[in-house]
Amino acid sequence: MNVPVLSKDGKDTGRVATLADGVFGIEPNQHVVYLDVKHYLAAQRQGTHKAKQRAEIARSTKKIVRQKGSGGARHGSTKSPTFVGGGRVFGPVPRDYDFKLNKKIKVLARKSVLSSRVAENNLSVIENFTFEAPKTKSYLSFLKALSLSGTKTLFILGDYDSNVYLSARNIPKTKVMSVDEVSTYDLINADKVLISEGALSKIESILN
């Protein structure tokens, strides 16, 4: 599968990039995409929630009413969950939400999203470039040239480039990442995926 290579000015360079069918042309598997996104979001949770149970409440343990003869229910102490300010029954405790997911599932999920982006015509290949200095205006001009101003974009670089990364850092709905950092969530969360020529071969080697 061939796609045109665009310059940073949004113009066709006259060259084409060949996309591997095994990475960019498979039948998307939506279930593995769901599993990988769920795995990513679960790993982001801190899991530090905590509610005190009755054994952890700082209150008197004195029996508040006698056992019999009061005409009401039996009560021990005000730590009981039946009283306002008492302990909570089966309350949340700190836990890790992460779960195991096979590497092959993660790879298939990323292939599925990339293939979907190609099928939707929402993936473009950009020639390798850099900026002379980190300037937000430079990256805004780059997005404007591609008619992507205000669009949620993900730009994947072959290697970390501080000038490009810092230029895009303050722009809403814009993310610049190297190949090693990209997850399925990042791919599916962007409306338009841009891949540099240098990143293309690395993506294919990692996912193949």
Automatic annotation (TrEMBL):
<comment type="function">
    <text>One of the primary rRNA binding proteins, this protein initially binds near the 5'-end of the 23S rRNA. It is important during the early stages of 50S assembly. It makes multiple contacts with different domains of the 23S rRNA in the assembled 50S subunit and ribosome.</text>
</comment>
<keyword id="KW-0699">rRNA-binding</keyword>
<comment type="subunit">
    <text>Part of the 50S ribosomal subunit.</text>
</comment>
<dbReference type="GO" id="GO:0005840">
    <property type="term" value="C:ribosome"/>
</dbReference>
<feature type="region of interest" description="Disordered">
    <location>
        <begin position="64"/>
        <end position="85"/>
    </location>
</feature>
<dbReference type="Pfam" id="PF00573">
    <property type="entry name" value="Ribosomal_L4"/>
</dbReference>
<keyword id="KW-0694">RNA-binding</keyword>
<comment type="similarity">
    <text>Belongs to the universal ribosomal protein uL4 family.</text>
</comment>
<dbReference type="InterPro" id="IPR023574">
    <property type="entry name" value="Ribosomal_uL4_dom_sf"/>
</dbReference>
<keyword id="KW-0689">Ribosomal protein</keyword>
<dbReference type="InterPro" id="IPR002136">
    <property type="entry name" value="Ribosomal_uL4"/>
</dbReference>
<keyword id="KW-0687">Ribonucleoprotein</keyword>
<dbReference type="InterPro" id="IPR013005">
    <property type="entry name" value="Ribosomal_uL4-like"/>
</dbReference>
<protein>
    <recommendedName>
        <fullName>Large ribosomal subunit protein uL4</fullName>
    </recommendedName>
</protein>
<comment type="function">
    <text>Forms part of the polypeptide exit tunnel.</text>
</comment>
